Amino acid sequence: xxxxxxxxxxxxxxxxxxxxxxxxxxxxxxxxxxxxxxxxxxxxxxxxxxxxxxxxxxxxxxxxxxxxxxxxxxxxxxxxxxxxxxxxxxxxxxxxxxxxxxxxxxxxxxxxxxxxxxxxxxxxxxxxxxxxxxxxxxxxxxxxxxxxxxxxxxxxxxxxxxxxxxxxxxxxxxxxxxxxxxxxxxxxxxxxxxxxxxxxxxxxxxxxxxxxxxxxxxxxxxxxxxxxxxxxxxxxxxxxxxxxxxxxxxxxxxxxxxxxxxxxxxxxxxxxxxxxxxxxxxxxxxxxxxxxxxxxxxxxxxxxxxxxxxxxxxxxxxxxxxxxxxxxxxxxxxxxxxxxxxxxxxxxxxxxxxxxxxxxxxxxxxxxxxxxxxxxxxxxxxxxxxxxxxxxxxxxxxxxxxxxxxxxxxxxxxxxxxxxxxxxxxxxxxxxxxxxxxxxxxxxxxxxxxxxxxxxxxxxxxxxxxxxxxxxxxxxxxxxxxxxxxxxxxxxxxxxxxxxxxxxxxxxxxxxxxxxxxxxxxxxxxxxxxxxxxxxxxxxxxxxxxxxxxxxxxxxxx
Length: 558
Fold this sequence. Notes:
Elements lengths: L3 H6 L6 H8 L6 E3 L5 E3 L2 H5 L7 E7 L9 H14 L4 E5 L4 H5 L7 E2 L2 E4 L1 H5 L5 H21 L6 E6 L3 E3 L9 E3 L10 E3 L1 E3 L4 H8 L3 H10 L1 E5 L4 E3 L6 H8 L6 E5 L4 E4 L14 H10 L2 E5 L4 H16 L5 E6 L1 H7 L12 H21 L4 E6 L6 H12 L4 E5 L1 H4 L5 H13 L15 H13 L3 E4 L1 H12 L7 E4 L19 E10 L4 E6 L18 E2 L5 E2 L3
Parallel strand pairs: 3-16, 3-17, 4-15, 4-16, 8-11, 17-18, 18-19, 20-22, 21-23
Antiparallel strand pairs: 1-2, 2-14, 5-6, 6-14, 7-12, 9-10, 12-13, 14-15, 22-23, 24-25
Helix pairs in contact: 4-17, 7-8, 7-10, 9-10, 13-14, 14-15
């Protein structure tokens, strides 16, 4: 059986100029990075402003398990399937983080015969966007500490600095540290720490910015700490936004690549959905909507995280309204949610499937009854799935008015996505998204917005706000931030904040440990459970199996 990288290596990619031409991108907008990838100048969006948007398809999933769901693979295969049935299609995805690539989860370029290429380049340095984001983040940190060292004219309290440095590698050693040691000339000693780059507010700002001017304005609003008299200090106060924007100027242009079948793909930005809002950039999504009659995008992790934030934050910010939602599931993953160990997933077990199905049904109910969007359940079928198990799944979804379509894109590419593509087209043409709604209004108090997500989306009873978080909420409301949306950082494995509570747990309370302002991004980050903004490597990291041959060929990358 071929690995993903072996499958990708066996395909001869189309010249990127040819892919761009099919997408409707004229040569004058194209900035090639070699033969198979390019950036697209933002002036294209202005020149296409009068063109009507295509239909936006959101791909999301059940709560993830070690058995896998295949959300990115489905998104790519669906794009190829739509192209096979004659629909002009552009897919918009997130850029992979090096953390999962070298850690445990893997990359973000799909799998099997539904991939974007060049997969090894996309999963590693790509066009350098994440490095630029890290550089901008750390420039701000350096300017902040330098300001304090040079006399601290703003009166910044070193004990109340909120800005952290970042690195796009899983490194638990850097979570908490003390720096500025070694005497006066080496800085002012203080507690510090690192986040992974995709958890940086710069990444969130990058993905929500609608232009270079908007990017600069958002960067200036970033709060880096507080003064001794408790006034917020911003990047604008440090005069850092211009230099940061200069570092991000080229990165802000969306990246054009292609699927294995040559379908145009825009890959741009990549915040984690369990820490940030988990969506690709607004600029790439907008560009895809102008270029394609159908545009597919995905939201990270399960629908309670990625889809909730896509709909409540990104769609609200950008004025987007999906035409349909694809909810990805596997029988294997649902049986794990039903309590079956991974070693037993190859056996028919309808009892475990029945026990795990509520996870899928809660996600589906949220999409249809909270957000009021048309939806289809895409089931990645494995050889071990039995007809009885599939029939049971179909019957339960039918009760909520959603069809189940078997997806075989991993094994068959676009051919295996034709049935799903036809159902997506049917949803767009026959069902309405006119009643699309958010899960909470912005005028609710901060605590009530968090409570609304916990009750309406997670299915919990209530929230418990720690005293320190209560003080933070009160302070944020005093600063006039009560009208911002909430971005809840939570484990991806459960509807609750306890990763051990699989399926669709009930009668639980979510503990709010910290609430902090992301003024540049325009939302409030709510930290729950034991969520980490700097992951660590597993016992046997994927990096141990990755190598490069004498002729420069990368091996062991999935």
